[in-house]
Amino acid sequence: MAAWMKRLSDFLARYPGLPVLIGIGLVVVNFVLQFLPADWPVIGWMARVNLWLHLGVVLGLFGALLPHAL
After folding, report:
1. CB-based contact 51:42 (threshold 8 Å)
2. CA distance linking residue 40 with residue 56, whole number of Å
3. pLDDT tier for residue 28 given thresholds of 50, 70 and 90
4. pLDDT at 16 over 70
5. According to the model, what pLDDT value does residue 51 have?
6. How far, in whole angstroms, is CA 58 from its chain's centroid?
7. From the centroid of its chain, how far is CA 59?
């Protein structure tokens, strides 16, 4: 576990803005899902609960705070 955390920390130190960019991408994915047909079971559910929006915002905030910790 410690080796995995060390590798993850080194990777995020090289690319500090990556979590923020991925978070923005997830928010855009959620925006696109709003325009797809709601009668598709999984797509409709993800659009109703705004799954990717919430994950994107949390990941973006995490990514914005992470460089200060590293």
Report:
1. no
2. 22
3. very high
4. yes
5. 92
6. 7
7. 4
